[in-house]
């Protein structure tokens, strides 16, 4: 496939990268390169999209498992969250079930987990410590990705069904969180005057309702309506709904990270994402795309 996209973004030619329709990707990239940073926005999932799925052969922590795997959490919490994960995670990634079938089970899972957390006496300081001691890892190249977007004032919406406080803490510890251009929509803890966690603020966000959350009825997307070019990145089909509120987008590229069960899920990912990145713990492809768009 001797096309311009593989010259402009050589990372797309790697053996673990699949491009569904090279003509579409090339046309989208040409439009984005012409408009450069002026019309670009980025929407990204966090767990196993911006963060690593594995490192050194071991599974990395999601925002939920930062808590579940921590020695600072009560044993009953770790035991119960493992039990819930064994029940509900296979449902989340079951390609034979529809999203409509999965949603009630996701609400059950997240609600049970949140109710359990309130009993665990979390504090802000403890969260900082647990993130530092965890196996949560940003993908290689994530700091460069954040820095590039910040330097060019490109808005980055981090949309996650995970724990917002842990996302922010992970970014602050391993890269830089830039409030000027970065916004996190996730499940955030509510703290009392003593910095003790007493519940959650806002609506419950799970894997399959990212297209219903309050960000879509707020002013985020209306404030960036001139940004008609979108890079969207996620690791599950539920992430495709993150851009529902971005109704002024004219040109988009959807990038999917396929982290496991490749043989089982590749066809489905190829049907839904423009670019599929298979078992790769870096952001090399995204950084290549952004460099090409910005003319770097």
TrEMBL record:
Question: Which GO terms of type biological process are on file?
Answer: nucleotide metabolic process
> Catalysed reaction per UniProt?
a ribonucleoside 5'-phosphate + H2O = a ribonucleoside + phosphate
Q: What is its EC number?
A: 3.1.3.5
Q: Which InterPro entries match?
A: HAD-like_sf (IPR036412), HAD_sf (IPR023214), Pyrimidine_nucleotidase_eu (IPR006434)
Q: Pfam families, from UniProt?
A: UMPH-1
Keyword ATP-binding carried by entry: no
Keyword field: Cytoplasm, Hydrolase, Magnesium, Metal-binding, Nucleotide metabolism, Nucleotide-binding
What are the GO cellular component annotations? cytoplasm
Write down the PANTHER family for this protein, in alphabetical order.
Answer: 5'-NUCLEOTIDASE, 7-METHYLGUANOSINE PHOSPHATE-SPECIFIC 5'-NUCLEOTIDASE
Name listed for the protein in its UniProt record: 5'-nucleotidase
Q: Which organism is it from?
A: Elysia marginata
């Amino acid at each position: 496939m001797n096309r311009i996209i593989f010259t402009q973004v050589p990372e797309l030619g790697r053996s673990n990268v699949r491009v569904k329709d090279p003509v579409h990707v090339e046309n989208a990239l040409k439009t984005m390169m012409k408009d450069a940073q002026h019309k670009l926005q980025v929407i990204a999932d966090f767990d196993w999209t911006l963060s690593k799925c594995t490192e050194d052969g071991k599974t990395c922590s999601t925002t939920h498992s930062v808590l579940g795997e921590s020695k600072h959490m009560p044993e009953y919490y770790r035991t119960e969250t493992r039990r819930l994960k064994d029940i509900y995670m296979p449902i989340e990634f079951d390609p034979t079930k529809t999203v409509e079938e999965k949603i009630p089970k996701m609400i059950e899972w997240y609600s049970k987990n949140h109710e359990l957390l309130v009993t665990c006496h979390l504090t802000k300081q403890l969260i900082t410590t647990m993130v530092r001691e965890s196996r949560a890892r940003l993908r290689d190249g994530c700091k460069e990705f954040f820095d590039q977007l910040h330097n060019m004032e490109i808005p980055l919406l981090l949309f996650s069904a995970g724990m917002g406080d842990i996302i922010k803490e992970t970014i602050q510890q391993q890269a830089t969180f830039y409030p000027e251009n970065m916004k996190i929509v996730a499940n955030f803890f509510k703290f009392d005057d003593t910095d003790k966690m007493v519940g959650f603020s806002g609506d419950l966000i799970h894997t399959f309702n990212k297209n219903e959350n309050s960000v879509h009825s707020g002013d985020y997307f209306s404030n960036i309506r001139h940004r008609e070019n979108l890079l969207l990145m996620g690791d599950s089909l539920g992430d495709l709904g993150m851009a529902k509120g971005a109704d002024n987008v004219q040109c988009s590229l959807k990038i999917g990270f396929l982290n496991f069960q490749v043989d089982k899920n590749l066809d489905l990912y190829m049907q839904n994402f423009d670019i599929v990145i298979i078992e790769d713990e870096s952001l090399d492809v995204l950084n290549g795309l952004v460099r090409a768009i910005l003319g770097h």
